Backbone:
């Protein structure tokens, strides 16, 4: 397998620093794309109901809160500040990945986030 080289910097934090012990951990795999180029592909584990966030250079800040809805679905609430926009979408994930896309205010940049829940 060839190593991937990503341009930019990814900063990841988990807020609500309570221990994952005693809480259900949710593992999410992200692919963040700008103008057709994969710029980051982090895999993160966050307690259900806790907020995680990442800042991706030249993309923006992406905060997310996963909440288990059942044994086979998880809802992920996002707060995204990117391309001059403030977005608050929700994805409900099961066995299939989810995705969202948007363009910058000027229309010059196109962004896509794909998310897969790893059980």
Residues:
């Amino acid at each position: 397998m060839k190593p991937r080289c990503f341009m930019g910097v990814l900063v990841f934090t988990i807020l609500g620093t309570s221990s994952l012990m005693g809480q259900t951990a949710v593992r999410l795999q992200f692919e963040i794309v700008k103008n057709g180029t994969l710029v980051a592909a982090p895999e993160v584990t966050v307690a259900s109901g806790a907020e995680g966030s990442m800042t991706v250079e030249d993309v923006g800040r992406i905060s997310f809160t996963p909440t288990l809805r059942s044994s086979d679905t998880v809802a992920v609430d996002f707060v995204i500040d990117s391309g001059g926009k403030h977005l608050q979408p929700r994805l409900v994930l099961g066995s299939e990945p989810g995705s969202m896309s948007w363009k910058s205010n000027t229309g010059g940049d196109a962004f896509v986030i794909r998310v897969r829940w790893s059980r």
Notes: The mean pLDDT is 86. The longest strand covers residues 60-70. The CA atoms of residues 65 and 71 lie 17 Å apart. The two ends are 23 Å apart (CA to CA).
